[in-house]
Specification:
single chain, alpha+beta, Lambda Exonuclease, Chain A, elongated
């Protein structure tokens, strides 16, 4: 697993980064390492993702028949408690109908973390433009085409739950414990996370924890 963007802190108004929702759904511990502990290590995958976003963000606004294309638009939602920056927002017709487009270096995934990140952008746009944003698109670099995403009730509910979980994580300041999966070996933060080593505490630490628990039980009884 690998993160898609460098660390970002909560802003002055207490809004958490939109990108943190994607990180949290993919791996809550990775999310905390990036956004709470400010740990970031770049590998080939994250470098490719960063270069793709820099290329997209560097583009100039465009106007085509019936659509205006805006890049790096600042977004925020009080309802979700998030803020961030879009890759691309297409404004169709008059009055303008926003259509967010998020760029990813890889290919479509089985989980919905990317779709949640895009849905959060749509909810921001709804608040900012005062209009419904029913769909957007994810552009994947490996397949070089868009995957359209409908912002249905289930996806919006998942986005709201992810935003609430990230806000709670920021409020408590706690990094979740490690949980090792085969994908951890591909994570750029594997050395800092150390899931294989830390998921099961050392024998001495387990013994000490057991002694403390037994002592507390005796005190309570």
């Amino acid at each position: 697993m690998s993160a898609a963007a460098p660390p970002a802190n909560r802003d002055e108004d207490g809004l958490v980064p939109i990108s943190a929702l994607q990180h949290w759904l993919f791996c809550p511990r990775q999310c905390a390492l990036i956004h709470l502990e400010q740990i970031w290590t770049e590998d080939v995958a994250t470098a490719e993702g960063r270069l793709l976003h820099e290329k997209v963000d560097a583009g100039r606004p465009e106007t085509r028949p019936g659509v205006r294309i805006v890049r790096s638009l600042m977004l925020s939602s009080r309802a979700l408690g998030v803020s961030g920056r879009s890759d691309v927002v297409e404004l169709h017709g008059r009055p303008p109908q926003p259509f967010p487009v998020e760029y990813k270096r890889g290919r479509p995934k089985s989980h919905r973390a990317d779709a949640v990140q895009l849905c959060a952008q749509a909810i921001c746009l709804e608040e900012m433009f005062g209009t419904d944003v029913p769909r957007g698109a994810l552009f994947y670099g490996q397949i070089r085409r868009r995957t359209e995403v409908a912002f249905d009730a289930d996806l919006r509910a998942l986005t709201a739950r992810a935003a609430a979980a990230v806000r709670e994580m920021f409020a408590t300041g706690r990094t979740p414990p490690p949980h090792f999966t085969p994908g951890c070996r591909r994570c750029s933060l594997a050395e800092h996370c150390a899931p294989e080593r830390l998921e099961r505490p050392p024998v001495v630490a387990r013994w000490l924890a057991r002694q403390i628990a037994e002592a507390e039980d005796e005190t309570a009884s």
